[in-house]
Design a protein that fits this description.
The chain has about 260 residues and is α/β, with parallel strands linked by helices. The chain has 8 helices and 8 strands, in the order αβββαβαββααβαβαα. The chain is globular. Bound molecules: zinc ion.
């Protein structure tokens, strides 16, 4: 009897939050490497060149986020191994699993190799030239004809999701700031609006994380560390939990 009561209590208390579905999206994959950085690593007595791919770092971080959210929500990855997935396929998955939130994970790269730090994006219009450079990198795998349709869709999605996405970005970013900024001496580059097609196509509240600059000669070493990725994943998970705390599905915008 007591066991049944305990079980019922657990179910009652866990039911509302377990109802949420979070889709975590590791950027790139397969032939699409994302950013690439060559580093020199010591192997025994030899020093060898090694290529680090954004697609691998993104998958590693995304899996860690999933592990941390799993006990609380229903979670999925848009890819769980190294394969190419189009932006449209990622968005279709959001519909298929009826995702409430969409979290896209990326690492940054810039021609200016002094750029460093972490930033969190949500879908919105803006006129910032520096942000357009990041958009160009992350949007480049969408075909020309699809872009025309998407301009109309983007406005509709922004209207419906922007306030939820901005709030989600703010909860996640403040967790990253408190857990990662000081500990790993990372620069806080802020919460920013961006026109990322993967966010627009997913049609739900979502964010795109740029967890650090692979092009920065010191930062790349931080990004490769398991401890850093675990801490960053914990921050994302805590931010999501903070955002969903006390919410019901009816309060989230859906198309
Ligand atoms: Zn990327």
């Amino acid at each position: 009897m007591l066991k049944r009561f305990v079980l019922l209590t657990i179910l009652l208390f866990s039911a509302p939050s377990m109802g949420f579905v979070v889709l975590i999206d590791p950027g790139h994959g397969g032939d699409e490497y994302g950013a690439v950085k060559t580093v020199r690593v010591k192997k025994g007595r030899k020093v060898k060149s090694e290529r680090v791919y954004e697609k691998d770092l993104a998958l590693s971080l995304a899996k860690k986020v999933k592990e941390r959210l799993d006990p609380h929500y229903t979670t999925y990855l848009t890819r769980s191994f190294d394969r190419s997935v189009s932006l449209n396929e990622r968005a279709e998955m959001a519909d298929a699993v009826k995702a409430d939130l969409f979290i896209s994970i990326h690492f940054n790269s810039a021609r200016d190799t002094s750029s460093h730090g972490f930033e969190t994006y949500y879908l919105d219009n803006h006129a910032d030239a520096a942000i357009k450079k990041v958009e160009n990198i992350e949007n480049k795998y969408l075909q020309g004809a699809e872009k025309v349709v998407n301009q109309i869709l983007i406005d509709l999605v922004i209207q419906k999701t922007v306030s939820a996405s901005r709030k989600l970005a703010s909860e996640v970013h403040s967790q990253i700031k408190s857990k990662v900024e000081k500990k790993y001496k990372m620069k806080d580059r802020g919460i920013k609006p961006g026109l990322f097609y993967v966010l627009a196509l997913s049609k739900r509240p979502g964010i795109l994380i740029e967890a650090g600059f692979m092009s920065h000669h010191k930062e790349i070493w931080k990004l490769r560390r398991g401890a850093f990725l675990r801490q960053y994943a914990q921050s994302i998970a805590d931010g999501v939990k903070e955002y969903l705390k006390g919410k019901t599905q009816k309060e989230l915008p859906l198309f």
